[in-house]
Amino acid sequence: MEEASAQQQGAAFPAPPFYFQRYTLENINLLEKAKADPQNPEIAKNVEQLSFPISALEPPPPVKKGVCWMFGRPWPVQDSLASLAEQGIEQLYPKETFDRVKELKKLNHSAVFNFLELVHTLSTSPSE
């Protein structure tokens, strides 16, 4: 019974990659020492004993152009907001400049009016 329940349990996230075990405090300190004094023979000896190249502990350089892959999908590095027309969405406000304060007040009045209308309907005949 316990085996069946153990098989049914799943992880919400995948297990971390195997190389996460490389990032120990000792290895990170060794990387810092190797950067500071690359000619030191003691540090070179410790670096040679590692089962992986010490450069693998360096973070990769940030992607500056093109796309990067995240969650299995490509994402543009230079994130730009597409216009409504580019997204195929109708633009409900004028393209030229307009008074944002006036438009927001109209939107606020409309929301308050509809809310009060809903409250009135619920208070007079709640069965509807």
UniProtKB/TrEMBL annotation:
The protein's superkingdom reads Eukaryota
Query: Which keywords, in A-to-Z order, does the entry hold?
Result: Activator, Nucleus, Transcription, Transcription regulation
Q: Which SUPFAM superfamilies match?
A: Mediator hinge subcomplex-like
Q: Which GO terms describe its biological process?
A: regulation of transcription by RNA polymerase II
**An annotated GO cellular component:** core mediator complex
One GO MF annotation is: transcription coregulator activity
Q: Give its localization.
A: Nucleus
Q: Which Pfam families match?
A: Med7
Q: What is its main location?
A: nucleus
Q: Record's family?
A: Belongs to the Mediator complex subunit 7 family.
| Function text | Component of the Mediator complex, a coactivator involved in the regulated transcription of nearly all RNA polymerase II-dependent genes. Mediator functions as a bridge to convey information from gene-specific regulatory proteins to the basal RNA polymerase II transcription machinery.
- What do we know about how this protein assembles, alone or with others? Component of the Mediator complex.
Listed name of the protein: Mediator of RNA polymerase II transcription subunit 7
